[in-house]
Amino acid sequence: MNNEILNQIVKEFGSPLYIYDGEKIESQYNRLSKAFNKVEKFKVYYAVKALSNISILKILKKLGSGLDTVSIEEVKLGLHAGFEPHEIIFTPNGVSLQEIEQVAKLGVQINIDNLSILEQFGTNNPNIPVCIRINPHVMAGGNANISVGHIDSKFGISIHQMPHLLRIVENTKMHINGIHMHTGSDILDVDVFLYAAEILFETAKNFKNLDFIDFGSGFKVPYKKGDIETNVEEFGKKLTKRFLNFEKEYGRSLTLAFEPGKFLVSEAGVFLANVNVVKQTTSTVFAGINSGFNHLIRPMLYGAQHHIDNISNPKGKERFYTVVGYICETDTFATNRRINEIHEGDVLCFRNAGAYCYSMASNYNSRVKPAEVLWINNEAHLIRQRETFEDILRNQVEIDITNNAEIPV
Ligand SMILES: *Cc1c(COP(=O)(O)O)cnc(C)c1O
């Protein structure tokens, strides 16, 4: 999607606007699959929470992906988009036993990440196969500095609790069919990831009837110059070799699974917003846009750096700007950023806006959420309408508080 196309789309659908490039999602998916093409049974479970529009889910379905879900609502979105229950993994954290049992009834693969729920679920449903989420306590601190940490993480069952876990499995006679880890953003380095994988292989030996090992995610995509990017090809080669060896040791073939979110959709997305005001102060030049952390919260929540282009004036002289939103709180997207000269009305383009952007949007300040557009086969398709004021009022229950009417509680 070049600037001309982006400008055209924003003219047609208005701003602020999210646009996703279907072909980029496909090329990322194919790149990952290719890196593991020596593994007989390889499966990608796209992490729905990154970007949950059902048209995006349908693209992934067509590519052959499954889904990784964290709420029963995400499971239902996946079923709605046409996924079979067995193509969906439910990997929640801190969710009630009741919700987990409801999802299990739908036929979805359950992944349990604490011993309390494992014992209760196994007691109630000894015949439903369950995957267990392990916390290998591995943190990256650079190549030669592998530290055993993250003892305080709320995710996963500690490897140190293995004796207790095995006792629960034995007592309940439940069937463990998968082993899982997802160490999130802790692992930046291929060798550190492989170290964590060893712990998973060790754990797997305790269970005789596994169908799959799920290595979660942890794939990095570059947001700004100099960012670490996972070398997927090198990673594929190294993990494949180790995995094939493990299969021999284990005595049967297993599915190797991943659950990438960001890797598949981050770079496919852009967020476009118009500049409402250019404001000089004693210390800087602010460019204020018609959006805020209600639409794109990653810069404020994580300090994420999204590259920003002025697609209305791409050849203009570069100047320094602080890009801010219109929310009545500090909502700074970027400080001292070099951007081609900005005029009021210009369209700014935020890169890497596919993952954890729209899916984290809110209605704060009673603003409506933006529209979403999918660019595919050289055509722009609206895949979610811009909200309207009606959406802001929906679900609000109006009561009569005049005439001393009693307010119901
Ligand atoms: C969020 C999440 C993912 C995806 O993480 P990315 O960094 O977006 O690739 C995978 N697995 C689980 C269990 C998750 O919660």
Please summarize what this structure is.
It is built from 12 helices and 20 strands. By secondary structure, the protein is α/β, with parallel strands linked by helices. It has 2 domains: 36-260, Alpha-Beta Barrel (TIM Barrel), CATH 3.20.20; 269-393, Beta Barrel (Lyase, Ornithine Decarboxylase, Chain A, domain 1), CATH 2.40.37.
Provide a descriptive summary of the structure in words.
- With 409 residues, this protein is α/β, with parallel strands linked by helices.
- It has helices spanning 3-13, 22-35, 54-63, 72-80, 97-105, 115-124, 162-172, 190-204, 232-250, 262-265, 298-302, 389-393, and strands at residues 17-21, 42-47, 66-69, 88-90, 109-112, 130-135, 138-140, 146-148, 157-158, 176-180, 212-214, 255-258, 269-280, 285-289, 308-310, 318-324, 332-340, 347-350, 371-376, 379-384.
- The protein folds into two domains: 36-260, TIM Barrel (Alpha-Beta Barrel), CATH 3.20.20; 269-393, Beta Barrel (Lyase, Ornithine Decarboxylase, Chain A, domain 1).
- 30% of the residues lie in helices and 24% in strands.
- Strands 1, 13, 14, 15, 16, 17, 18, 19 and 20 form a nine-stranded mixed sheet that branches. An eight-stranded parallel β-barrel has the order 2-3-4-5-6-10-11-12, surrounded by five helices. Strands 7-8 form a two-stranded antiparallel sheet.
- The structure holds pyridoxal-5'-phosphate.
- Residues 47, 49-50, 68, 70, 91, 182, 216-217, 219, 259-263, 355 line the site of pyridoxal-5'-phosphate.
